[in-house]
Design goal:
Blueprint (H helix, E strand, L loop, with lengths): L2 H21 L7 H22 L24 H25 L14 H9 L12
Helix pairs in contact: 1-3, 2-3
């Protein structure tokens, strides 16, 4: 397998494994994540297409290090894999940072987390009633 292709596959598998096996933020189940990926690719296609166009390339790839499959506008297919891995890793790191920066006593949004315990805990939490408040 060509080097660029191999590194792309490793990056994709690594990021997906990081989410599924360790972080478990649940981003792959949210519409927000997939919309953000569509936005990223919508901007990546014209920019990457302009940079890699075979007629007058700005970025030149070693053809022996990639599959040679280019679409659309001469974009190496591996670029999409790296884009997916890079943006997904950034979102995962952001989610992890945001989760750790909040007070652990505040329930997290179960829509953004795949953790069943969070869903159960958030459904059990209710707003305080006037009788629950302490008098000063």
């Amino acid at each position: 397998m060509p080097e660029y292709t191999l590194l792309t596959v490793v990056a994709i598998i690594g990021v997906v494994a990081l989410e599924v096996l360790w972080l478990r933020t649940g981003i792959f189940r949210t519409a927000q994540y997939w919309v953000s990926m569509a936005i990223v690719f919508a901007f990546q296609i014209p920019v990457d297409g302009w940079l890699t166009k075979l007629s007058d390339p700005i970025v030149i790839y070693n053809e022996r290090q990639m599959l040679g499959l280019r679409l659309p506008w001469d974009i190496p297919v591996e670029d999409f894999g790296f884009g997916f891995a890079m943006v997904t890793l950034a979102i995962l790191c952001w989610r992890r940072f945001v989760d750790r920066s909040h007070d652990s006593s505040v329930p997290k949004d179960p829509e953004l987390h795949g953790n069943l315990e969070l869903r159960e805990a958030s459904s059990a939490v209710s707003a305080p009633t006037p009788t629950d408040r302490e008098e000063p």
